[in-house]
Amino acid sequence: MSLPKTLAEDVARNLVMVARLIDEDPEQAYAYSRIALRLASRVAAVREAAGFAAYATQKYSEALAEFRAAKRMTGSVELWPVMADCERGLGRPERAMAMAGEPEVQKLDRAGQVEMRLVAAGARRDMGQIDAAIVTLQSSELASSAVHPWTPRLRYAYADALLAAGREDEAREWFGKALEADKDGATDASDRLAELDGVEFVDALDEDEDDAAQSPADAADDDKSDGKDEDGTSES
What we know:
Number of helices: 14
Oligomer: single chain
Helix content: 55-70%
Order of helices and strands: HHHHHHHHHHHHHH
Largest sheet: none
Radius of gyration: 26 Å
Strand content: under 5%
């Protein structure tokens, strides 16, 4: 659908702000998406952006409605995994699992099928089926040594499921593999590994700030708090 030039520019500006803010300030991104939606609700890209903004703010019912609208407009199935994840967000993992078995999944590209596998594993975990979640994640993509944009998250999800099943040694191995593939810091695999190894990180900057916050008078009071004079003898 084409829009008048001025209206198209207004919509585009709001969509740019959605994209710019969705990770850092999702609530503000959501506000911009609502403006774009009021201006051009019959444009598929606007409905999709509104869906992702709602999804980022955990408004899953609203997100699902927008994704469904975008799918109807375009006929594309690429939003199928995130639609299934909205069902999980709404507390309906059974529906997410049903979507994982629908013909639309076969129409997804490889990245989309990996996303669907991640959603399905999450739904299994929602239902308390940890072992089934582990099996769901086992795939040629997981076994491959090649690194793709989705590789760190797939390995991380597998490690997390293993840990939930009490398989700590295997979990440590897969958190390590996730970290190895995660060049952009998309996961907290390094923190999870440190946690498994009992390593605690202390923020030196915070310690310095705490020391600086103590006034000289406070320090002097601390020195005298043991009831001794400056020469080290006890007060009478």
